[in-house]
Amino acid sequence: MYLKPKTLDEAVSLLTSPGGQILAGGTDFYPALGERLPQGRVVDITALGEIRGIAVDSEQIRIGGLTTWSEVIRAPLPRCFDALKAAAREVGSMQIQNRGTVAGNLCNASPAADGVPPLLALDAEVELASAAGRRRMPLGQFIAGNRRTMRRPDEILAAVLVPRRLEDAASAFVKLGARRYLVISISMVAAVVRADEAGRVAEVHVAVGSCSATPRRLDDLENDLVGLPAKAGIGAAIRAEHLRSLSPIDDVRATADYRRDASLTLVRRALEACVGSR
Fold first, then answer.
1. What is the predicted pLDDT for the residue at 179?
2. Dist CA 76 CA 255 (whole Å)
3. Does pLDDT of 24 surpass 80?
4. Residues 228-232: contacts with CB under 8 Å, at least 24 apart
5. Integer Cα distance of 263 and 257 in angstroms
6. What mean pLDDT comes out for the span 115-127?
7. Could you give the CA distance from residue 269 to residue 257 in angstroms, rounded to a whole number?
8. Contact call for residues 103 and 192 (beta carbons, < 8 A)
9. Alpha-carbon distance 259 to 253, whole Å?
10. pLDDT at 134
């Protein structure tokens, strides 16, 4: 059964009974089916304009779950979103960017999802809507494992919320793959650096994707970088031990050792790019 609600309230009411599947951009939904037909109820949420687009209030920047990656690229966002825009340009082809949604990328929960590390580095939260109301949680808590999230079957990811305190920070996204375009990453890094008036690191966030079951923030590294001069050469402060929380695997794209070594280089490059753009 195919259903296309016109409002968010109508959509979540259709998910109260077991078996409903959400269809948004469809860029993951249809490839996962292969040659099979959809089973059960398909709830097409593409008409829900209330969860599409980007809005700014006094405390946060709100990205609607149905916002496409092309819309993210075109939006006049603060410089802290430079990393997210760079990642958006890496999400498949231009056709995928025109259809694929921010919520779909997060709910798919691939370890190699391009949109996750930049949003983790922005301290993003997700807002989940259901017939019972809305709830929020940090993105790092929402993504629970490889292809697993904390979204309940009766919930829709309505928005991603980014705090405005970071909007003047510099950000960068770097990705390594076997080729330049249309590639699943071997490793990718997003970094956000906010400097104080004295030119020292006041706040820094670094997230690595494709090197663990879920993208990870490097908490020890972030703590060690606070107070250092936010200038060229900051990469020299990064040591291999700072990446010990990662758990890369061997697969057809790279070995675990190569991923770990490449990630160290990418982290250095991302941070150098941030301080170089100040």
1. 80
2. 39
3. yes
4. 228/200, 228/201, 229/199, 229/200, 229/201, 230/193, 230/195, 230/199, 230/200, 230/201, 230/274, 230/275, 230/278, 231/199, 231/275, 231/278, 232/272, 232/275, 232/276
5. 10
6. 98
7. 19
8. no
9. 9
10. 97
Name the burial class of residue 50, with classes exposed (0-12), middle (13-18) and buried (19+) by CB atoms within 10 angstroms of its CB. Answer: middle
CA 6/CA 21 separation, integer angstroms: 16
Structure tokens belonging to residue 96? 């995928």
At 147-188, the pLDDT tens digits run 999 999 999 999 999 999 999 999 999 999 988 777 899 999
Decide if 246 contacts 211 (C-beta within 8 A).
yes
How long a stretch of residues is the chain? 278
Q: How far apart are CA 131 and CA 237, in angstroms?
A: 49
> 153, 18 in Cβ contact below 8 A?
yes
Token pair in block for residue 59: 């405390």
Q: Is 278 a residue whose pLDDT tops 70?
A: no
DSSP for 8-55, please give it.
HHHHHHHTSSTTEEEESS-TTHHHHHTTSPP-SEEEE-TT-GGGSSEE
Q: Kindly list the structural domains of the chain, giving each domain's residue range(s) and its CATH number in brackets, ordered by start.
A: 49-165 (3.30.465.10), 169-276 (3.30.390.50)
Distance, in Å, from the CA atom of 202 to the CA atom of 146, rounded to the nearest integer, reads 32
